[in-house]
Amino acid sequence: MELLATLPPGILSLLAFAAFSVFYFGFGYASWKIALATPRFAGEMTRVFPQAPAGKRMHQEVLYSVICLGLFALAAELTLFLGHQQINRLYFDFSAFGWIWFIASIMLAQALQDLYIYLTHRLLHHPWLMKKVHKVHHLSLEASPFAAHSFHPVESLIHALAMVIIPFILPMHPLAVLIFFAYFMAANILGHMGIELFPPWLDHTLFRKLVNSPTQHAMHHAKFRGNYGVYTNIWDLAFGTLLSENPPVKAGKEENSEDVMLQNKADKEVEFPKPHALDPVKVVMQMVDAKGAFPQMRIVSSAPSPQITMDGRNLQMFCTNNYLNLSTHPAVMEAAVESTLEFGSGAGGSRMISGTTSLHVELEKELAALKGGEDCLVFSSGYMANLGAITALANPLAAVARDLPREVLRTLHQKTVIIGDELNHASIIDACKLAKVDYITYRHMDMQDLREKLEKYRANRLIVVTDGIFSMDGTIAPLPQIVALAKEFKAMTMVDDAHATGVIGPNGGGTTDYYGLKGQVDIEIGTLNKALAGVGGFIVASREVCRFLRISSRPYIFSAALPPSVVSALTQAVRLVKSEPELRENLFSNIRAMCHHLRASGLISQTFETPIIPVIIGDETKAAEISKELYELGYFVPAVRWPAVPKGSARLRVTLMSGHTRTQIETFAQTLSRVFRKHGVISSLSNAL
Question: Which listed residue (530, 559, 627, 673) is catalytic?
Fold first, then answer.
């Protein structure tokens, strides 16, 4: 003690804080682990946490309790402040005794609080007493599991009295008591309001397990607005036999239905068996099957042409992405066969190891030339191309941040915000989620809304991403305005050209070719399974960006390379896009013919410039019925419903090929009009894009 008295006040302060922290952290963390290892508490947490308070009455009860609790706490602290003998002295002299007294008082207050929580839970929430409380406060015990753990005024009153009496019975430091109860009340009141007392980044990492008492955690957690503390499991060892939750029933007393209900509830909540990990999957599929919502997979046994064989029937196809009929082009099929004979059926490795053949390099050169870019990367799918580009470009400094000088890191490192059209493809949205960046949407093709979003987030590193042709609406993005806004706000531009590559533009180069913007978009992404009639995806960008993606894009690094047969066929398909423009000319002639017939029938209200023509129905059930009847009549046009499109905008997504004949188009349009009228779809229905 004499040695401590000789230490400077600053050193004493640090030592005292360290001692208190070790006790607080250690005891809190140990009790949390012990509690979670207890089957009874683990079952309770599993049962209660996923639930939420039910009903307006429940919320009113909680609000009333919080107000009472706050008022009683204020009265207790004022009584303590005005009545203590130490009021006329400084609360703290910096002696060793003063520090020890202060720390011991806080520790004692914490222990007393936990004991109090244990006792109030075991006594006030005893089934017999809860029956009485239920009658007084009208709490619906069956409405929510929280009802048995919620604050009520009786408990608040006992709590307030305890805070007033304890400091006068025990020799506790007045300042310690004030600090502890001020923190305790703030945590309780804010917790019941759904407000965290500490910043989320701190509260969600260390504070809940270490700094904050597990009991306090249970108290102020927004999802667990009750006073069932973790320490009950520890106090149970000492008091469990004294406070049984199943008191004997007096002889001769008739149990009413409420007694039985409460007793059964207590019996059933002791322990819950752990479900198998596959049980939630089974529940979901049972619901899907009960609603008949599982999609029927049609089996195609022919090439994707205007005329197909499906489920043993000959049907006319109006839903394929094989826009240019390249899948059955003799030159494409011949290239696939020859490369298989020479290179085998598979590449034998990833692109970074042994999977990059001369065929892959040749395809990437052809795609870069088609798009007017410097370099290209080929992926196993278009989905993976979006995933690989966005996740890598969202935080390009991640791999070298530790080795950069602070000045460089401070200058270049900014939070990335990706701003995209609200109808962008799902792969873009999924990639942003995996990249853990903010994904902000602007209204479909609304450039004023895009400007406002860019202005709002201009302090960040910005990436603007859009589809070239929107897959469910057939519209073309206003790329010139997007590029101009991106340059103004120093944002990177990214276009998903899946449905545009090989289709629109003077040379079939896609959206940038269509608008004369080749080389002015930073990243062009596309698929190889639509107009190019193969499988895979690609990224076209500057040579530097492509070099970066080759060492940072995980889907590129860790996926097997495309088979040589596919790569060779794709290379031939790209060449045919450039060498046989009549393929695209036939396609657009068919598009104009279909739009003419559908407009004449009142099924669409505008002319489309892409192979995708949406015929809006609205009602999802009716859309499915129309699609089914068309199938019976010999046409395959599936209904597109939520979640592929917003609810209430179900449609038939009609797509055309260059190989469709005028007779097929005219006959289909007439049949479609007849079926729509039969099902009561009015002719004035327009495309609500």
Answer: 530
